[in-house]
Amino acid sequence: MSKILIGADIGGSHISCMAVNPVDHSIIKELVVRKEVNSQADAGAILSAWSSALSELIGMIGLGNLAGIGFAMPGPFDYPGGIAWFKGVNKFDSLYGINIRQELRHRLGLAEAVPVRFINDATAFAIGEAWIGKAAGFIRSMAITLGTGFGSAFISEGIPVISGDEVPRDGCVWHIPYGKSIANDYFSTPWFVERYQELTGKNIYGVKEIIDELSNIKVQHPESKIENRKSKIEYPASSIFHEFGTNLGDFLAPWLNTFQAGCLVLGGNIANGFSHFEEPLKSALAEGHCTIPVFVSGLGELAAIAGAARLCDEDYYKEIPTY
Hints:
Elements: E1 4-10, E2 14-21, E3 26-36, H1 43-61, E4 66-73, E5 77-78, E6 83-84, H2 100-108, E7 116-120, H3 121-132, E8 140-146, E9 150-156, E10 159-160, E11 177-178, E12 181-182, H4 189-200, H5 207-220, H6 236-259, E13 264-267, H7 274-287, E14 294-296, H8 301-309, H9 314-319
Parallel strand pairs: 1-4, 4-7, 8-13, 13-14
Antiparallel strand pairs: 1-2, 2-3, 5-6, 8-9, 9-10, 11-12
Helix pairs in contact: 1-2, 3-8, 4-6, 6-7
């Protein structure tokens, strides 16, 4: 077996790791390990869960065949240094100040010559999409992740752009003022939960419940064009998605235009409801003089895994700007 890359996606409740063939850029779906992780546990328990998953996958590959491990990691994190700075984000607080690279090297028995590298999870997603996903045919692209938080990255010829006049600092837009607060407050799960409660008086856990509600309406009333109805009383779930799409297009258009992106790729759980906000999103983009294609990722978390694995390509890694 030729040298194999491992990409690992670190989520708030799990670790997913998979092998990637660097020759043809293919994800080896037969070589995958996913384990649940308690992000509220002590440092030892979290590191043990991560290393257990990785050790199992390395066992499938063979330690001698491992070319390196790349991690798609949420922040706050020192990505070049490999040090966790999680604090006040309701996950992984026990890892604060720990050198994750050193800990995992020790636990996995990795030689210093084997690269262990980290990058922001939203950036890893964007890299993966530009490498083997929907954005692969475009010189420039923007990718966003819509979930518990609002992630973003700008890619030019496969490389993240994190500075200059064309993008906000680090390629992050979540903190930029929008509406009455910042973008993250409008383009993440908490907004849907709060907005649904405002319109219906009912509490929900997440966006999936709203998507399911709209699916049930379609089944019961197949002739009804609910996506075009703006009635907050009859179809509040549809109204919420319409509002979300309009706001998202209004917010993104200036950044997409400034960066001259060739396409926009959506990922994250909220993207599963794309059919419910596609029309208002594209209408708002068009009003902002942006008519680029919009795609929903076909890879899902595999995009982040592929993007993370690519960090172990020495020539590519040299081109990555330092966060």
